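Collaborator request, handled under Task 6.
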Amino acid sequence: MKFGIAITTSVNPATTAEGQARYVTEMTDEIERLGFDSLWVSDRTVYPNDLVDRYPDMYGPGLADPDAQNVLEAVTTLSYAAGRTENTRLGVSVLVLPFRNAVLNTKMLNTLDQLSNGRLILGVGTGWMPEEFDSMDASFEQRGAVTDEHLDLFRASEKSGDPSVSGDHVQLDGMKLFPQAIQHPRVPVWIGGNSSRALRRTAEYGDSWHCIRLTPDEVSAQRSNLIAACETAGREPDEVGISIRTGVTMGSNDTGHDHSEQRGLMTGEPAQIIEDIESYRAAGVDYMVLSVVGNSTEQTIENLNAFNTDVRPHFG
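Structure tokens returned to the collaborator:
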């Protein structure tokens, strides 16, 4: 089991706009110092002022913190982190491809891979919030097709400096696209999402299925569908990993966003969290991207160190 750590500013509910640079800097440095495999950011452009009213089943008291949508731009943040690190891999969980110009985005990602000496892990998704698509002048209805063609260009750019793609939404031919990513055989692409289409896209394009906040039982149930999708796509199932993005709360949960009396997964004492991770591993998960919860930058770093000392050694 490998572990990556999210440095998305929304992980820390007490982080203010003025404190975001300090939070990202100190978390990046600590992740590198402790030797975690990777650090991760999220992707969000804009969101409605009345988010809780529009999505009452997702945000509000006892649910997700709406302020968790306040995140810095993903590729820019990873570029900053790349300059402060030497060994930590750099991931995005997940980049919403339909928002972005495919040619420019491919150039940006290839540049990041070059400047970081081949440390990019590209998590991608299709997005889910129609209001965000409207604000980005992007088609919500066509987001899946646009994502696939975007990936066609990204993969083609790894094989050739003058990639050719002819799709309904992405076209490029007879043009030089510099630079190319330097990872070999290719940049790992993790396909985000819990849907059946995400599983099929993983089999077609991905190196890992990147699920979000599923229980071990849910992962196990979907694993058989992933295996079937790989067989349909002509791939060996063991070519595709399973990763998960989830939170971890060391000790009691005092963040104010989860008021349930029952202990949630990945919360509590080290022994409980170790047991949860073992359950995920038994379900087929080989990589966990963790949002370490804390009420301040200092507490988040303290909890990160507690996980590193009391939990991580049990997994090699």
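The cover message to the collaborator said: "Confidence is low (pLDDT under 50) at residues 255-260. The longest strand covers residues 241-250. Please let us know whether this matches your experimental observations."
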